[in-house]
Amino acid sequence: xxxxxxxxxxxxxxxxxxxxxxxxxxxxxxxxxxxxxxxxxxxxxxxxxxxxxxxxxxxxxxxxxxxxxxxxxxxxxxxxxxxxxxxxxxxxxxxxxxxxxxxxxxxxxxxxxxxxxxxxxxxxxxxxxxxxxxxxxxxxxxxxxxxxxxxxxxxxxxxxxxxxxxxxxxxxxxxxxxxxxxxxxxxxxxxxxxxxxxxxxxxxxxxxxxxxxxxxxxxxxxxxxxxxx
Length: 229
Known about the structure:
Belongs to the CutC family. InterPro entries: CutC-like, CutC-like_dom_sf. It comes from Streptomyces virens. The protein has eight helices and eight strands; from the N terminus they run βαβαβαβαβαβαβαβα. It is of the alpha/beta class. The chain has one domain (about 5-229): Alpha-Beta Barrel (TIM Barrel), CATH 3.20.20.380. An eight-stranded parallel β-sheet has the order 7-6-5-4-3-2-1-8, with helices on one face. Helix 2 (about 45-50) links the parallel strand 2 and strand 3 (about 55-60). The radius of gyration is 16 Å and the shape is globular. About 40% of the residues are buried.
């Protein structure tokens, strides 16, 4: 029997989390402020969502728009606060001014996570060299996922890269799961599944009324059905 594909849904609050769970989501990415493409949420939100649903929740560690780390000590304190609120999985990713991974910042935050599983997010789609980024991060404790569209412009532009990277699974730097998100549409799903990609991430696609409206359980269920065939 084939492995069930992971469906991760962006949640902003408890209402989103409950709807995503009802629709068949496997995991949540918890963020605040989507106008800034997702920042670290309030600790109280983490606590409420963990009490409301039994899904794994990956919590964003990001304090400002863009992919620069900024004040690393503030990031470390944010990670510490999220852990104290019950967070057990995380999302992060930082680049330097040259588009290379900011390894010092990543390692500093990951050190605070103490082995928790985490996703390197779409900063990879802005990297000067994706392959070099993957190889520099290879072996970091807890890194099990790359959230990527394959290109900064989204899945339409990044599809060839996604398919190529799926074909490199098992090579150094290519062990973590590919979690595809960023302009992802249902029509992309068959080709991605056929390539062996088994991680899918949706945000706006789960919200028929846009980011001003909540996650729709029905919209999530349509994705669940598409992934399950």
